[in-house]
Amino acid sequence: MTTNSTMDIPAHVPEDRVVDFDYLRPAGIDEDLHLAWKNAQDTLPDIFWTPRNGGHWVVTRADAIKAIQLDHKRFSHARVTIGGEDVREGSIVQMDPPRHGSYRMLVSPAFSPKTVAALEPIVRETTVSIVEELCPKGECEFVGDFAQILPVVVFLGTVGLPPEDREYLLPLAEKAIRPRDRQEHLEGQTALGEYVARALAARAEQPGSDLLSKIVTAKIGGEPIAFEAAVTLCQIVLAGGLDTVASILGFVVRFLALNPGHRQQLIDDPSLVPNAVEELIRRHGLINNARLITQDTEFQGMGLKEGEQILVPNLLYGLDERQVDNPLVVDFTRPHPEQHHAAFGNGPHRCPGSFLAKLELTVFLQEWLARIPDFVIKPGTTPRMASGSVSTVQELHLAWDTDPR
Questions:
Q1: Which helix (H) or strand (E) holds 82?
Q2: Where is pLDDT greater, at 8 or 335?
Q3: Distance in angstroms (rounded) separating the CA atoms of residues 341 and 116
Q4: CB 36 within 8 A of CB 314
Q5: Taking all residues of the chain, what is their mean pLDDT, rounded to a whole number?
Q6: Nearest one of 150, 164, 346, 120 to 248, comparing CA atoms
Q7: Do residues 65 and 59 lie in contact, with contact meaning Cβ atoms separated by under 8 Å?
Q8: What is the percent of the chain where pLDDT is above 90?
Q9: Per residue in 234-283, pLDDT tens?
C-alpha cells in the first residue's frame, strides 16, 4: 500500500463525491494530526470516494461512523485496513458475530473491571519506576522512554509471563510501533508472533491458570482451538496494548506539554483526573478502521458496491460538532465526555481492553504530574506523528527543569 497509488473512478461514483484524499497523509498532519483530520471533516463531504490507496469510500461524521460500526451484515470486519489482508482465524478485530463472540469470550474475563483493578499495582509500580528514573535527567524521548514500555510490562503481567522478558520484547515493540519502513514493521510483528507461539507451546504442555493457558486449551465450537488461531488471538491482545496505549499516551503528553493551564488544573484538583481521561480520549481519537462492503447497498444517498471498502475514521467521532459542543476545546469539567467518543468502538466489537487503557492513563497522569509537573516539548525538536489504521506519535522529545527553585 502506498500513499500515492490511484485508480480509475468506478462508474457508479458521482463526480461530485470524488476527492483526492490520502488518509495516511491528510493535509497539515506535520503540524497537528487531529486538526488535519478535523479540517477534512469540516471541508469534505459527509461521504466520498478517494482514488488513493487502491480506491475506497470515506465517511466523516459521527452518525455514519456509529451506524457502520453497528452494522456488520453490510459492513464486515473481514478487512479492517484499507487494502489489507482478509480475516485470519483468531483475529477478533477481523471477525464478525457470531464467530467473533466465541473468541472474544476467551479474553474478555482478563479485562473485566475487577481483573483490571487487580492489575493496578503493576501499572503503578511500573509507572513510578520509569518516571523516577527519568526525572533527574531533565529530558526524555517520551515514546521510547515511557509510552511503549508500560504496555509491554502490563501485557507480561496480564498473561503471566516473566517480567524480565521485557528486555527481549522492547526492541521488537520498537520495530512494531516505530518502524523505519514496512519491512521493519513486518519483522517486528513476526518476531512478536514467534515469541507468543513459544509461550503458548509451553503452556500447552503445562497448562496453568493464566490467560495463555486458557486460550491454548480452549474449545471453539466444541473443537480444540487451532494453535495458529491461538497465536493470532494472543498477538491481538499484545498489539492492542502496544498500538493504542502507547499512541494515546503520546498525544495526551503532547497536549499537556503545550497546555500548562490544563496540567495545573489536574495538579490543583486530582479528582478531575477520571473525567480528564475521558475528555483527552475524546479529543485525541486514534482509530481509522475500514470495513468490507458485503452487498450492493445504499448508504447516506450513495450506492456502494459489494467488495468495496469504506474507511470509518472513528477518531473524528469526538470532533464532530453535530454531537458535541466546541469539540476542539479540551474541558476537564465537560459533562460525560465518555458519551461523545467512539475511541473503543461500538457494539459487540467494543474494545475489551478499554478499562485497562483508562487505568494506565489515569495512573500515568497521577504519577507523572506528581513528579514532573512542568515540562515542555524540547526546544529545537518537533513531534513526529503518523496517520494510519492507528494514528500515533512516533517521536516526542520533552524537557523539564530538574531544579525548579
A1: none
A2: 335
A3: 22
A4: no
A5: 91
A6: 150
A7: yes
A8: 64
A9: 988 887 777 788 899 999 999 999 999 999 999 999 999 999 999 999 99
DSSP notation for 102-115: HHHHHHGGGGSHHH
- Give the E-state strand segments of 17-102 in sequence order: 47-50, 56-59, 75-76
DSSP character at residue 146: I
Q: Residue 213: pLDDT band by 50, 70, 90 thresholds?
A: very high
Task: Tell me which residue has cell 482478509.
Answer: 86
Neighbouring residues of 14: CB distance < 8 A, sequence distance ≥ 6: 302
Degrees to nearest 5, angle at CA 85 with 82 and 87: 115
Q: Kind and range of the H or E element at 311?
A: strand 309-312
User: pLDDT class for 347, splitting at 50, 70, 90?
Assistant: confident
231-245, 283-297, 357-371: which range is least confident on average? 231-245
The pLDDT of 167-172, averaged and rounded, is 84
Rounded Cα distance, 277 and 275, in Å: 5
Residues 6+ away with beta carbon under 8 Å from 19: 44, 45, 48, 49, 50, 58
Residue 301 CA to residue 303 CA, distance in Å, equals 7
Q: CA 174, CA 339: separation in Å to the nearest integer? A: 33
pLDDT of residue 2: 41
Query: How far is C-alpha 198 from the geometric centre of its chain's CA atoms?
Result: 26
The cell numbers describing 118, all together, are: 487487580
Separation of CA 171 from chain center: 20
Helices (H), 4-148: 33-43, 62-69, 99-107, 113-134, 142
Res 223 pLDDT > 90: yes
Q: By three-state DSSP, how is residue 39 classified?
A: helix
Residues in the chain, overall count: 405
Q: CA torsion angle for 248, 249, 252, 255 (degrees, to 10)? A: -110
Element (H, E) at 312: strand 309-312
Q: Which amino acid does the sequence have at 225?
A: I
User: What is the pairing mode between strands 397-399 and 139-141?
Assistant: antiparallel
Side chain identity at 324, as an amino acid letter? V
